Amino acid sequence: MEIAFDTNRPEMIRKHLNHVYYQILAVLPDLMDLGLFFGGGCIRDLWNGDPIKDYDVYFRELPTAAQLDKIMMTLRESRTTILGNIEGKLNVVKLNFILSHHGLPSDTRKDFDFIMNQNTYSPQGENLWIESTDHIENKVLVGVKDSRSAGKLLRAYKFIARGWTIAREEWMALAASEYELMIHPATNHISLTDIFKNPMLEAASS
């Protein structure tokens, strides 16, 4: 989904996610009292003006069994939910209701994998938190210290393939590498090309 980029990015993010929030409540009004908030990549991509693949929706309070049944029924009817006319276009996007984490946005952010994903927005109160706009704009991967998020290495590969870079220390911590990585001396970052230029990987694949 293409996003209309606005120089007033915080206000643009609030406006966009408020609209998505009310479209969710139009489909699932029983969720209003659960303190829904958005987190992670949708805010990151909105900040950079990148296409949004999905919205991660978190809860301050976990849904009751009846509310959860209704969510699941809605999602079973379609794997995606039509969220109406956003930025002048009819869009069909994926909603991820995150049930493995609940509580305050500040607590949820601690368990995100990378700093560039440590973002939350609470429509009730319009509270927007972005941990580091520098990491987002420069597309640099830095892991969240003591995060319990699993699968960081695989996710790092995916982001690197999309043009993100990762500092040497971060890569070594993630990969516990058994081979010498080729580091850009000027930037101290590696790219996907550098990884696959490694003689150890070339020998293994031949």
What structural category arises from helix and sheet content?
A: alpha+beta
Helix content: 25-40%
Mean pLDDT: 76
Tell the overall outline. Answer: globular
Using DSSP, what is the number of strands?
9
Strand percent estimate: 15-25%
User: What is the terminal separation in angstroms?
Assistant: 39 Å
Unreliable parts: 1-5, 177-186, 196-206
Element-by-element helix/strand order: HEHEHEEHEEHEHEHEHH
Estimated radius of gyration: 19 Å
Sheet of most strands? 6 strands, mixed
Please tally the helical runs, counting DSSP H or I stretches of 4 or more residues.
9
How are the strands of the biggest sheet laid out side by side? 3-4-2-1-5-6
Describe the protein in words.
Strand 3 and strand 4 form a beta hairpin. A 6-stranded mixed beta sheet has the order 3-4-2-1-5-6. Strands 7-8-9 form a 3-stranded mixed beta sheet. It has 9 helices and 9 strands. It is globular. It is 40% helix and 21% strand. 27% of the residues are buried. With 206 residues, it is an alpha+beta fold.
Layout: helices, strands, pairs:
Blueprint: H1 9-27, E1 37-39, H2 41-48, E2 54-59, H3 65-77, E3 81-86, E4 89-102, H4 105-109, E5 119-122, E6 127-130, H5 133-138, E7 140-141, H6 152-161, E8 165-167, H7 168-175, E9 189-190, H8 192-197, H9 199-205
Parallel strand pairs: 2-4, 7-8
Antiparallel strand pairs: 1-2, 1-5, 3-4, 5-6, 8-9
What labels would you give this structure?
206 residues, 9 helices
